[in-house]
Specification:
- The chain is built from 13 helices and 8 strands.
- The chain is α/β, with parallel strands linked by helices.
- The strands form 2 sheets. A 5-stranded parallel sheet has the order 4-5-6-7-8.
- Strand 5 (172-175), helix 7 (188-194) and strand 6 (200-203) form a beta-alpha-beta unit.
- The longest helix is centred in the first third of the chain and has 15 residues, at 3-17.
- The model is unreliable at 1-27 (pLDDT under 50).
- The protein binds zinc ion (2 copies).
- One zinc ion (ZN) is lined by residues 48, 50, 76, 95, 146, 278.
- Residues 48, 50, 76, 95, 146, 278 line the site of one zinc ion (ZN).
Length: 324
């Protein structure tokens, strides 16, 4: 047995042993797998980070990205703080994580142009949504998102977001969470069909749960084996404008819950998946950092450097401007 195969086999055992796929042995094996593959120096783009994430300061955020060995990151702002239905009466302001708005993201990207680009964001159902998004897209925002509001994903208000994205030829990044954010995931194919020139990133629990054909909508972090052919699997296969944002606990869980399925899924959708972290820790490594763990799981399950390069960088470059 080759060393790499050995590492991947032992990895599967470790993950099922420690349900969450965490633990020091897991990290050490990932590290060894990365070194064996010469992966240490590869170029990594992270398409999902935030300014003031749960209050994290900018220098800590920048250090976190550096420790994860990410070269370029996309900053996703929140919308304006408002008390209304779309923000769950204010509870979901700041993307429910104290995240700052577009101006703060633009400031960091302007200060560190080699390391960051930024998206524009706004609550979809305001009088000012259109003018606010257009203002930032004209100033250099590279996309719209993270759209994380209490509204139907195929509503008239969300269609306004997609219309703006179409006009400016930028992608939209969407947080899908059952009965909470961007409701009606099962109808999203209508949007993919209506907006063939707009690229969409799917993100979060309902996006990742639906890799499984047997997904139970209320189970946000399922641990069972995956039956291929879920809605997400089909959207990625059937629509050239649908992409996957691999970030957060939900993205990590989607791989670790069934490593055998994950390896096939990563290869099947190697032109559609983008590495991302969306983690709020200050470490940038180890057990608290889901972004570092996700990077290492991808390295382990995708031994081919040319396929990894797509997931770590070139897919993002194809869809998001300004990433070099
Ligand atoms: Zn996020
Ligand atoms: Zn992290």
């Amino acid at each position: 047995m080759k060393r790499r195969q050995f590492l991947r086999t032992t990895a599967a055992t470790t993950v099922s042993a420690s349900a969450a796929g965490a633990g020091a042995a897991f990290a050490a094996e990932n590290d060894a797998a990365a070194k064996a593959d010469g992966a240490g120096e590869e170029f990594i783009i992270d398409i999902h980070q935030h300014v003031n994430y749960h209050g994290r300061q900018n220098d800590a955020m920048i250090a976190h990205q550096r420790t994860m060995r990410v070269s370029k990151s996309v900053l996703l702002p929140a919308g304006t703080e408002m008390t209304r239905s779309t923000t769950h009466n204010g509870k979901s302001n700041g993307l429910a994580a104290r995240v700052f708005g577009t101006e703060a993201a633009a400031r960091v990207a302007t200060q560190y142009p080699d390391q960051f680009v930024y998206f524009a964001n706004e609550i979809p159902d305001l009088e000012t949504t259109k003018t606010e998004l257009e203002k930032w897209l004209k100033r250099g925002a590279r996309g719209i998102g993270e759209q994380k509001f209490n509204i139907d994903c195929d509503s008239r208000e969300m269609r306004l977001i997609y219309d703006i994205a179409k006009e400016f030829q930028v992608p939209v990044l969407i947080h899908f969470q059952h009965n909470t954010y961007n409701l009606g995931f099962e109808r999203f194919h209508k949007i993919l069909e209506a907006y063939p020139t707009v690229n969409f990133f799917g993100h979060a629990q309902t996006w990742w749960g639906n890799i499984d054909a047997k997904h139970v909508p209320t189970d946000l972090y399922p641990k069972s084996k995956v039956t291929p052919g879920g809605l997400t699997d089909r959207y990625l296969s059937d629509y050239p404008n649908m992409f996957g944002d691999m970030s957060a606990g939900s993205g990590l869980n989607a791989l670790t819950r069934d490593l055998e399925h994950a390896a096939a899924f990563l290869h099947r959708h190697q032109d559609k998946l983008c590495y991302a972290s969306d983690c709020a820790d200050v470490e940038g490594q180890g057990d608290k950092c889901s972004g570092a763990k996700q990077r290492d799981v991808i390295r382990r399950l995708v031994p081919e450097p040319e396929v990894r390069a797509k997931i770590f960088a070139s897919n993002a470059r194809r869809v998001i401007g300004g990433l070099g």
